[in-house]
Amino acid sequence: MKKPICTLQFCLCVVVLALFSTTAPAAEKQKAASDVQDLVFLADGRPLLIRLHIRVDGKPYLAAWEEFVNYVFDQYDTNKDGVLDKDEAARVPPIQSLIGNIGGNIYFNPGGFAVGAGGMDANRDGKVTREELANYFRRNGGAPFQLTQGGNQANTYSNRVFLDYNGRPPRGNSAEALNKALMKLLDTDKDGKLSRKELAAAPVILLKKDVDDDEIVTSEEILGEAAPNDGNLDFVFTSTAVGGGMPVTDGPLVAITPGEPARTLARKLLERYGAKDGKKTGKLSRKDLGLDEESFHQLDVDEDGLLDAEELARFARRPADLELSVVLGAGQGVKISPVKGKKGQGFRLTENKDGSVGLGVGNTHVDLKIDGGGARSGIMVAPPINRNSFYKMQFSAADQDNNGYLDMNEARRSPFFGALFKAMDADGDGKLYLKEVLAYFEKQKALQDRAQAACVTVSIADQGKGLFDILDKDGDGRLNVRELRDAVKLIDKLDQNGDGMLEPSEIPRRYTVSARRGPAGGGGDGFGGVVRFVSYGGGMRRPVAERTAGPLWFRKMDRNRDGDVSRREFLGSDELFKKIDLDGDGLISREEAEKADELFRKQNQRK
User: Fold this and answer.
1) The dihedral of CA 225, 373, 513, 487: what is its sign?
2) Of 565, 605, 567, the residue nearest 589 (C-alpha)
3) Cβ(320)–Cβ(344) under 8 Å?
4) Nearest to 158, CA basis, from 534, 462, 552
């Protein structure tokens, strides 16, 4: 028997070849995956795993973002030792100033605070590595992929981010939030469905939410976000920038962050697809999720036929239900990338001529597109400013001895230069000249431009038609008595299975999902966030256009401008009200008012 020949050189070659054969494909796979971003769409009936392949200017979006992080790091690693020491890190501007506006947050929040508080220096060893800088950016609004709720574009009111009377941000009047609130209020027997009897009680139940007692119910009142009527209360709405939005908290899209546990996704899956009878087990079956056998088997690690929270957190660790190619920059557009060996189940896809993609799942329709602008139609935008003139004006005001530079004492007296003195003093001589100030902000502007180009934001906008929108026939964002009385007709319109009940899954939903370059709050509206104060002059009453149809007396009495005159609004006697109210429904309509007006004219002519 011959002994195997294995010299030292031969064995080393075998080991090296084995290493190359195992590591090279893995490295290539990791590199190829740098354009991947997973989203889970919580559609009616089943969740969909959507895999986006995002490229920016021909590069994977993560590669573009990493180039930005490296650029920032190299700009401030002045001694080129591969780390940022405390002084170097202190000069790094906060990511909020880079993704926002150069004239805004940058001089109120200098980068130095992030080091001392452990913001950048996560392990507090006095040094900031590239990885720590990247993680700092991710945690503070500068992540490469951002998901926001863009509001209901069909309703101009919901594009404004209102602060309520306690100064708290509202939950948002999306169709989804309103559907849940209306179902909770009207479903008195708590069976998860609305019967004719329950819908017929809508006027009585919902008018109890009428905080300002104007016989009108607004979305804010239904959601419990309306302030009591206290006269000329000022309401504040804020908007960060063009295309800005609020982070998604209760939307139908969930973004998966690679390498992080998807506990939020697991919770949302259990909430959305859990037992309808209220008996929550903390697990979901294949029927609950509408998954095919192969996909479910991949997730069911313990093979008990149910998925618990831990298994649901791995929902994205499987082949996607559909893949989309999102190209930003040159040749931008959205395209469908069919998943190999897998047929689409439970959803419909259409590729439109305008470069958008339509996705249909049950009663839900989603339009996916590239956003060329913002979702803030109708929002006032601050006019652009001449930044250099502004900086010169601030410098001149701070230079109290007129010697052409600022010392530390002069800078400390200025709200503009105090915090940034060391960062602006490039040569470290303790004197801050105007040219150093202008050079500093020019550098920050270059960094900001790179930050704006490095991030990708996907916004989901609720387009209705939820229960509120369906009932709101005149589209004024309010529900009047007549509209509430029509709630019982929803069953005839929406009951698809013919059981005489209205289920949440039978309510149509429509969303627009748009992708664009730039961070969620980035833009160019002058100084960072735009803040506007608007007074409605009457508590929570929305500004509603004055109606022009109907007799003058009718329009004057219609104080809430809902198109009807109730008995409370009518200034005449009960007898006269009943005479005009021809159908006896307790409301005088415009048509009834016109007939009464014509009758009054004829009676006066006879006299």
Assistant:
1) positive
2) 565
3) no
4) 462
**Cα(454)–Cα(517) distance, rounded to whole angstroms?**
7
Q: Nearest to residue 565, comparing CAs of 551, 546, 586, 537?
A: 586
The answer to whether residue 379 sits within a structural domain is no
Q: List C-alpha distances in Å: 402 to 397, 406, 410.
A: 9, 9, 11
The reply to whether 192 falls in a domain is: no
Is there a contact between 299 and 284 (Cβ–Cβ < 8 Å)?
no
What is the domain range of residue 582?
552-606
Residue 272 exposed, middle or buried by CB count within 10 Å (0-12, 13-18, 19+) = middle
What does the pLDDT look like over 263-319, one tens digit per residue? 889 999 998 888 765 567 889 999 999 888 888 999 999 999 999 999 999 998 888
Question: Is there a domain that residue 63 lies in?
Answer: no
**Residue 296 in contact with residue 286, Cβ under 8 Å?**
yes
Cα–Cα distance measured from residue 48 to residue 51, given in angstroms and rounded to the nearest whole number: 10
For the chain, helix, strand, coil in percent to 5 are 35, 20, 45
Beta strands in 107-233 (DSSP E): 145-151, 161-163, 216-218
Q: In this structure, what token pair is assigned to residue 419?
A: 């915090």
Q: What's the CATH number where 585 sits?
A: 1.10.238
Tokens linked to 510: 């429509």
As for how many domains the chain has, the answer is: 1
Tell whether pTM > 0.85: no
